[in-house]
Write a structure and sequence with these properties.
InterPro entries: Pyrophosphatase, Pyrophosphatase_sf. This protein is of the alpha+beta class. The protein contains 3 helices and 8 strands, in the order H-E-E-E-E-E-E-E-H-E-H.
Length: 183
């Protein structure tokens, strides 16, 4: 089974979707998704002082411009093991503007089963300390792979949904050869 392609399509909708977790909150190991194998692989290890402030994961049945599934920052009160399926909904998006002119986008997702974070509806409701920790971690992570970040931007739910829709359409074109009818 390749989790990227074999998850039921109705489990990946822009209002609510299943996230495949990768990096556990507090972990200094950075796992990336191997699209061919449908598994996680060790990408790099970060300094022991900079662990992931949140769980991270991927959205199956989506495809970004770089050919991989959407990465997500998962708002959840507890560390989750890698390869856990978690029902989530979007809260917003964080855009990392890179010094080379590129952009890396991450959808910010709230775990539906988490009483605290499921009440978070917008990026404005994310505590400032949490937002700063996310930015610090993502900047550090990009620096490790020699992609320095020049600016970060938190965007609202509408931007996250537009990005999700574009990546889902890209997936359907690339792997299924079709675009679904607009609803």
């Amino acid at each position: 089974m390749n989790i990227w392609h074999d998850l039921q399509p109705d489990l990946v909708r822009r209002e609510e979707y299943t996230v495949f977790t990768a990096n556990s909150m507090g972990s200094t190991a950075r796992l990336s998704f191997d699209g061919d194998a449908g598994l996680l692989c060790l990408d790099h290890l970060s300094d022991s002082n900079i662990g992931a402030p949140n769980n991270t994961g991927f959205l199956p049945r989506t495809c970004t411009e770089d050919g991989l599934p959407i990465e997500t920052i998962l708002l959840c009160s507890q560390p989750l093991p890698a390869m856990t399926l978690v029902r989530c909904r979007p809260v917003g998006l964080i855009a990392l503007h890179l010094e080379d002119g590129g952009t890396r986008n991450y959808i910010i997702s709230a775990a539906c089963a988490d009483e605290f974070w499921s009440a978070c509806l917008t990026v404005d409701e994310i505590p400032t300390a949490t937002r700063k920790a996310i930015v610090r971690y993502l900047r550090y992570d990009q620096q490790l792979v020699r992609r320095p970040v020049s600016a970060t931007e938190f965007c609202g739910l509408e931007q996250a949904e537009k990005y999700f829709d574009a990546c889902q359409q890209n997936y359907l074109l690339r792997y299924c050869g079709k675009i679904p009818p607009q609803s």
